[in-house]
Write a structure and sequence with these properties.
Elements (H helix, E strand, L loop, with lengths): L2 H4 L1 E2 L4 E2 L4 H11 L3 E5 L5 E6 H7 L9 H10 L2 H4 L13 H11 L3 E6 L2 E7 H11 L7 E8 L4 H11 L3 E9 L5 E9 L3 H8 L4 E8 L1
Parallel strand pairs: 2-3
Antiparallel strand pairs: 1-6, 3-4, 5-6, 7-9, 7-10, 8-9
């Protein structure tokens, strides 16, 4: 799955010279929390979030009344409060690479660019929904967490054994293990029972760390 499959296309954007008050209205109207910021040529120059607006607003301890606060916010532009160092991605990047970038830089979204133009935005929420789909959470089955050999052919042999008893692997995800030549595997199989699953791995070099019906 690629970024283009999960991103929001043609996202709401804001010009760098508009006031933070106008940006706040865009957040509320569109029920969003992040806005790519463009210059007059439509090129990405920054990003602004609700948190940025909160930092730009007077604190609750301010003695300004609502009209004075509104006037103050109308004079502060997005350019003065936005983050100018923006991490971006492109449409053809795998979703896991986008997730890695967000994790590495501690950010919640990535504007998606084509050249200098913004064509979409992918957020941590988008990737969360993607994660839900990858694990096929809407389909019932037996879910098992396994520790398997990392030798070539181990997964293929396991899948073949599942197929022999008419089981259907609807999701399988692997991860590095802290043990040499071992791999952590999370698999979901439909069409069989837990007892059937246990028979498949009986006598094999496979350790079950968790198994349940979901």
């Amino acid at each position: 799955m690629l970024v283009k499959d999960v991103m929001t296309k043609n996202p709401v954007t804001v010009q760098s010279d508009v006031s933070v008050l106008e940006a706040k209205e865009l957040f509320t109207k569109n029920k969003i929390s992040k806005l790519p910021v463009l210059n007059k040529n439509g090129e990405l120059v920054g990003i602004i979030t609700k948190n940025d607006l909160n930092r730009a607003s007077p604190s609750d301890a301010s003695t300004l009344d609502v009209y004075e606060m509104g006037y103050l916010l109308s004079k502060i532009t997005v350019e003065k409060t936005m983050c100018k160092s923006v991490k971006t991605t492109t449409e053809d990047i795998p979703v896991e690479e986008a997730a890695r970038l967000m994790a590495d830089y501690g950010i919640g979204c990535l504007p998606v660019v084509s050249g200098k133009l913004v064509v979409g935005i992918v957020t941590s929420s988008d990737l969360f929904h993607c994660f839900v789909e990858m694990f096929s959470t809407k389909n019932p089955g037996v879910r098992a967490s396994l520790e398997m050999s990392e030798h070539p052919g181990s997964l293929a042999a396991f899948a073949a054994e599942v197929a022999k008893i008419k089981g259907n692997i609807v999701s399988i995800v692997t991860a590095d293990s802290d043990k040499n030549e071992r791999r952590n595997v999370t698999v979901k199989v439909s069409g069989i029972t837990i007892e059937d699953f246990k028979k498949v791995i009986e006598g094999k070099d496979i350790i079950v760390t968790d198994i349940r019906n979901v």
